[in-house]
Design goal:
Structural class: alpha+beta
CATH superfamily of the largest domain: CarD-like, C-terminal domain
Helix content: 40-55%
Largest sheet: 5 strands, antiparallel
Order of helices and strands: EEEEEHHHHHH
Number of strands: 5
Oligomer: single chain
Distance between the termini: 66 Å
CATH class of the largest domain: Mainly Alpha
Number of helices: 6
Shape: elongated
Length: 176
């Protein structure tokens, strides 16, 4: 049966769905939709208390993928430690570009967002929306690092911020 050729993931696999981040395959279900039998991946996103069903034949075009390889994450870590690229375009346009990078699900693109927004932490206060986007990117990358390295998401986030040399946390405590 040709339908089975599309099944790349199995129950228990951790996967990344671009718009939602790291989830776990609960199983592969068959449902009748519009008179056709369709195989679906049932994916649970624990943190968001969300369940998503993606047709197996659409998984690739939807961007569903396995967790990043160690090399792809290494590239992301290198990106984190690079110099921030601050573009002088309007914030609304940059914010839109940052959101697009986060939702691409690509760890290197997400690392670029963290790197570029982190810089503003050092110089000036971040706006509410900058902090929101920064947190969203941090959470997304930390979840994947946590799943790959089998550590907690908090540990992964701390690790990422340490890599970026974020000293703000220490400064705040010293000032208090």
């Amino acid at each position: 049966m040709a339908g089975n050729d599309n099944v790349e993931f199995k129950k228990g696999d951790y996967v990344v769905y671009p718009a939602h981040g790291v989830g776990q395959i609960d199983g592969i279900e068959t449902q009748t939709i519009g008179g056709m039998e369709v195989k679906l991946y049932a994916i649970t996103f624990e943190k968001d208390r969300m369940r998503l069903k993606v047709p197996t034949f659409k998984a690739k075009t939807a961007g569903l993928r396995k967790l990043s390889s160690g090399n792809r994450l290494k590239d992301a870590m290198k990106t984190l430690q690079g110099r921030a690229r601050i573009r002088r375009t309007m914030w609304s346009r940059r914010a839109q570009e940052y959101e697009t990078k986060i939702n691409s699900g690509d760890p290197v693109a997400i690392a670029e967002v963290l790197r570029d927004l982190k810089r503003s932490n050092d110089d000036t206060e971040q706006s509410y929306s900058e902090r929101q986007i920064y947190q969203s990117a941090l959470q997304r990358l930390a979840r994947e690092v946590a799943a790959v390295q089998k550590i907690s998401e908090d540990k992964a986030a701390t690790k990422l911020e340490t890599m970026m040399g974020k000293k703000d946390a220490g400064k705040d405590k010293a000032a208090a």
